[in-house]
Sequence to fold (408 residues):
Amino acid sequence: MRNIIYLLILTFLFSACEQKDEKQKTPQQPTVSIEHQAEETSASALTLRPVEFKELKNWYRDDFIKALPAIKSSCEQILRENNTYMSNSEIQIPTKAYQQACKRLLNSDISTTAELRYFLDKIFAPYLILDKNKADGKFTAYYESSIEVSRTQSDRYPYPIYDRPQDLIEMNLGEFDSRYPNHKIYGRINKDKTKFIPYYTRAEIENMELPASVVLWAKDLVDLNIMQIQGSAIARLENGERVRLSFAGHNGRPFTGIGSILIAEGLIDKNHASMSEIRKWLKLHPDIAKKELSKNERYVFHKIASSPAPVGAHNVPLTAKRSLAVDKQYIPLGAILWLETTTPNKEPFEQLMVAQDVGGAIKGIVRGDIYWGSGDEDVLAEAGRMNTTGQYYILLPKTMEIKNAQAK
Fold:
């Protein structure tokens, strides 16, 4: 019965989506060589410009070996994938081509920076990622926060931390129509079991008895929201025990950053809107905070995890300052990247990264969010100030043909 409902609903959804297609960019289908790709014929805003490794800033000085655990963990995940292209992203990397490179890496005995650099130079080629011929984009940072919790509800710990609800349904439209690869929608069946409708908003969830297990109870609403923004947290129980809370899903509603909300309301100055400053302001104004936080419709669910580190969307543990959250519509998860930007202190940040996560606010061709690590106020203060301009390159196996590539 439920499958029949889905098909009826999707018929309506596809007819509605067709009206939006004229405004949407679609990936170019033919595989073309670098030499014959005409810039003006590309159907996508995304293009790749071939470069040489020597053109990458700090390529011969970065301590590559620090990125090896991240590369290996993503390689192990890629070897388990069977899609034709990695993540079905717009940069279409044949999964088999990357798997061949991963097998060579995992079967090697690489243990030094020099050995890893030599391997990458031999197997991969770098390409600058461009959005409408522009290389510059926005790069921010996120971290694993901490939150005080209890296993039981009380006046001191009143806020539930929900696991994924039982009635939350995820549908990949690409499984029904190839025009919508990787396009997922989230919702629920209405009470009459006749319609598939959007899932509850944050405001609705906060004022109802949700059909979901309560994992733990949080002490502070602001910290609960920050955990949802960051995706994971170290939960500190009353007895001193610590457990890791990781991402378990979301309600599919649009994400709106609390900073944007407060700035739009004229409550804070845009020049003083780092996450650390926003957190302090919200805690000083709890009544206003509750009202304003509910305006972000996106709600994130969590589960207790046994992983030694937070796990990203690529289903591998994240590595501090080597894992990057990207928009996988464009950038395949598991891809090796070279990032050139600056730290909050305006120092160069030029190093090897791996695309291992995604985020509600991480949208666009040249857009990245650096996983900064785990910690308390010190990590929050630094990661929260990260909001810089930069560019990045993707390393592609030399054995593959390149789509959407500009002639050098």
Summary: DSSP finds ten helices and 16 strands in the chain. Confidence is low (pLDDT under 50) at residues 1-42. Residues 346 and 357 are 25 Å apart (CA to CA). Residues 2-18 form the longest helix (17 residues).
